[in-house]
Amino acid sequence: MASEEMEQLVRREYTQGFVTDIESDTAPPGLNEDTIAFISKKKEEPQWMLDWRLEAFEQWKKMSEPDWSHLDYPPIDYQAISYFSAPKKPEDRPQSLDEVDPKLLETYEKLGIPLHERAALAGVAVDAVFDSVSVTTTFKDKLAEAGVIFCSISEAIREHPELVKQYLGTVVSRGDNFFAALNSAVFTDGSFVYVPEGVECPMELSTYFRINAANTGQFERTLIICDKQAQVSYLEGCTAPQRDENQLHAAVVELVALDDAYIKYSTVQNWYPGDEDGKGGIYNFVTKRGDCRGDRSKISWTQVETGSAITWKYPSCLLRGDDSVGEFYSVAVTNGRQQADTGTKMIHIGKNTKSTIVSKGIAAGKSDQAYRGLVKILPRAENARNFTQCDSLLIGDQCGAHTFPYQEISNSKSMVEHEATTSKIGEDQLFYCQSRGINEEDAVNMIVNGFCKDVFQELPMEFAVEAEALLSVTLEGSVG
Amino acid sequence: MLEIKDLHASIDGTEILKGINLTINPGEVHAIMGPNGAGKSTLSAVLAGNEGYEVTQGTITFEGEDLLEMAVEDRARAGLLMGFQYPVEIPGVKNVYLLKAALNAQREARGEGEIPAPEFMKLVREKLAYMKMDNSFLQRAVNEGFSGGEKKRNEILQMLVLQPKLALLDEIDSGLDIDAMKVVSQGVNSLRSEDRSILMVTHYQRLLNHIEPDVVHILMDGRVVKSGDKTLATEVEDRGYDWLTEGSVA
Predict the structure, then answer these.
(1) What are the sequence ranges of the domains in chain B?
(2) Which UniProt keywords apply (chain B) (predicted)?
(3) A333 vs A254, residue with greater confidence
(4) Given B97, B102, B142, which is nearest A437 (Cβ)?
(5) Which of B71, B91, B98 comes nearest A436 by C-beta?
(6) What is the pLDDT of residues A266-288, one digit of tens each?
C-alpha cells in the first residue's frame, strides 16, 4: 500500500536521527518526526512520552481539518508553522511602550492593568519589574502542605510520570479530533494539577498571574485530576488582551473528577482579535473536556470569551458516574470581524446524571457567532436531566447569531429542556436608560451585563468584576 | 422653564403635531388633556427625544437652551425627566444600579463627583419609604415582573431621587388602583416647589383631583385648542371634547 510505504519512509527518516540542530532554540517551520523529537528532547522527556507524541502524529497525518463549523478562514499551512520557539530575544522585541499599538495601551488603561504589567503583556523587552518569586514560593508551600500538586505539564511528565501516564489522553484521546491530535503531538506547555483524596484545594488556582499567562504556549496542554472527595477551582487566562506571534492556538484541557469530586474551571479568554479588518488575530481551536468518572462527581465550566479572531471551542462533560453533574456557563462576545463557533457537549452515561447549559452570545459589529450544543443521553442513563438556555443578543444590523442544538436521547425516562431566544438590543431599553441621563455606551454595557448576569455570578468574585470591565471595552464603539 | 413654539412633528410622514404653543414657568403644574389620537403621547415623546418622531417645524427652549439640539441623555442631565406610561423591563440590571448610574451621570454633568455609597443608600431608602416601596425593590431587575402600579411607583421613585427641574409625566395614572393612585400623586405633589415645574399628560380628570394643576390645556388634532385653570378639566369631564371644536376655525 502506498500509504504504508509512505509511513515507513517517514519512520526511516526518523530513525536516522535529528536533522535539526539541537543547539538551536527554535525548530524550523514544518512538522515531522524530527520536530517532535526535538520538542521532546528540549523538554527532557522520557522515551514513553516521545512515543506517545509520535503515535499522535501518526493519527493526525490521517485526519483532515474539520469543516463543519460556521467559520470562515483561509486554509492553514501546517508545514509553515514553527512548532517550537524559545521566547523572542530582547533585541527582537519592542524596546519600549512607545513602539506598541497605542490602541492596545489604551485598552490596558481602561482595564486598569497595573503599569508594571503593561509592558510585559505587550511583549516589550523588559526585565520583570516586580518580585513574583516570593509570592510564588509562599503559594507553592501552602499547596504542598495540602498535598496538592500544581506544576507545568513538562515538570509533571518528569516528576510524576505515573499520574501523567495514568490520565493523559484518557479524556481527550489523541485521535479525538484534528486539533487534539496535533496538540498531542507537539504540545509544549500547560499546567498539571492533582488534588489528593479528600483535599479541598486551599486556594483558587490560576495560571499564576497575568504576567505569567502572557507567555503561555501555542499548544497548551492542561491536565487536572481531582481524586475522591477532592475539590478545586481553577482559573485560566486573563482579561488583558494578549498578543502573540503565533496565530494558531490549539490547546487541550482534560479534567478528571473521581467519586464526589468537584472541579470548577473558569476561563476568561481575550486573545488579540486582530485589527479592524481582523488581520493578525489569533485562531483559537481548543478541545476542553471534563470526565465525571466517579459517582456524584461534578464538573463546572464557566467561560467568558471575548478575544481571538476565530474561536472554535466546546467545553464538554462526560457524565459517566451515577448522579454526576455537568455545568456549562458561557458568555461569548464578538465584535468587529470576529467569528466564534462555541458551545458544549453533555454526554449522559450514568444514572440520575444532571446537566445545565446557560449560553449567552452577544454579537456586535460585523461579527458572526454560533452556539453549537449536543445533549446526548445514552440508554443506561435513567432519570437523566438536562436544562439548556441559550440566548443571543444582537447589537447593530450587520452581525449574526446562530443556534445549533443537537439532542440524541436514547432513554425514555430522561428529561431534556431547551429554551432559546435571539433578540436585538432593545431600542426602548436604550432609550429608557438614556432618558435617565445615562449615555448610550454605558446604557449598552448596563443592558449587556444584565443579559450576562446568570453567567457572571458563576465566576469567582475577582474575575466577575474584571469580566464586566472587559465586556464594556470589547463592545466599545459598537453603537452609534 | 419650557417654551414650545409652533411645534410640528410627524411620524412616518404623517403629521401629528400641527403647531403647538406652550409656555411653562418655574413652579407651575400643567396638565394636557385630550381625546385619543390628539397627539398627547407624541408631544411627550418629542420632549423626551424619541428619535422615531421627526420635528418638521418650530422650536422648544428648555432653560434657555435649544432642547431639540440636545441628545436624550443631555436632556435628562439638564433636568428634564420623563415618567413613562409603559416603563420597559431590563432583565438582570438591578434597580439600585440604574438609579445610581443615573444619579451619577447627572452629578457628573453638573461637575460634581460620584455620590458616596452610604449617602446614596440613605437617600434611596428615604424615598422608597415615601413611595411605600419595600427595600427589596432595589435588588430586583428594573421593572421586571413589576405590576402596573409598581412600575409607576418606580418611575416616581426615580423622580424623587433625581430631582428634575421639569418632570414630564406621561399617563402616569393609567393602570393604577385608588391606593396606588394616592401614593403616586403624593409622590408627585412632594416634587412641587417654586423652582420645579410639572407637565402631566392624561386621559382622565381623575388624576387632577389628586394633583391639582395650575393650567390645563386641551389638545385636539395636534393643536392646543383651549387653555384654562383646573375648572376646564371638570368642564371637559362633564361635556366631553366635541364642544371645543364646534364652530371653530380649523
Answers:
(1) 2-245
(2) ATP-binding, Nucleotide-binding
(3) A254
(4) B102
(5) B98
(6) 988 777 777 666 677 778 888 99
